[in-house]
Structure formats: structure tokens, C-alpha cells
Amino acid sequence: MLELNRNGKKEDWKEELSIDAEQELNQLLEAVKKHRCAYKDTENVQIAQLWCALVEIKKMVGKLDKRVSSIETVLSALFKARDEEKDKLVKSLMKF
Questions:
Q1: What is the pTM of this model?
Q2: Containing domain of residue 71, as a range?
């Protein structure tokens, strides 16, 4: 059981998170550990860890942007081909 702090509140606020949110947070914290050498000796470790977490989130967003861009490229090509085929069909039907 968790100990209560001076105000009578739980020490570990993460236990109030949903299971999914806690798992996501743990994954992010693991990613932040890669930057330990950058923040371990700073005056305010917690703030430095937050900045490192932002770096990791930015990396994730960048990867997602690349994936979305490639999906958009594929879909654009598919729709272009579909529109060209449709135009050909309409022209051939107009000649008929």
C-alpha cells in the first residue's frame, strides 16, 4: 500500500491513471532514459526529463508524419489512376 504524504494524499499519482495511460507513460519514461547522461547532473532533473520526453514525443510525431505522407502519396496515385480510368470510360461511352 502507498504511503500518504503530509497532506494525506497518495505519493504515487500514476496509480490513478488508467492502465493504458500508465503503460504509455512507462514506455515514454523508458525512452527518456536514453537521455540520462544529459539530465542526470542538472540542477533540476525533473524539468530536464520533461524536455527529453518532449524530444522523444517529437521523434514519434516525425515518424508518424512520414508514414502519413507515404500513405497519402499511395492514395493520391490510386485516386489519380482511378480518375484516369473513369475519364477513359466516359470518353469511350460518349463515342458509343
A1: 0.67
A2: 17-95
